[in-house]
Specification:
The protein contains one helix and no strands. With 47 residues, the chain is mostly helical. The radius of gyration is 18 Å and the shape is elongated. The N and C termini lie far apart (40 Å). 0% of the residues are buried.
Length: 47
């Protein structure tokens, strides 16, 4: 997982708050949501 877009986003978030904003402690958390972009096909569509 070291070379993934998710890890890159986490590192860039930390880098921004640490180097750009100068905040070393209490870096805001990064909300990440993983969704399934390719859901399994359904037999019928619910109304």
């Amino acid at each position: 997982m070291n070379n993934t877009p998710l890890m890159s986003a986490i590192y860039r978030h930390i880098d921004y708050w640490y180097h750009t904003r100068g905040i070393a402690n209490n870096i805001p958390s990064l909300g990440i949501v993983i969704i399934n972009l390719h859901p399994s096909p359904q037999d019928e569509i619910p109304p």
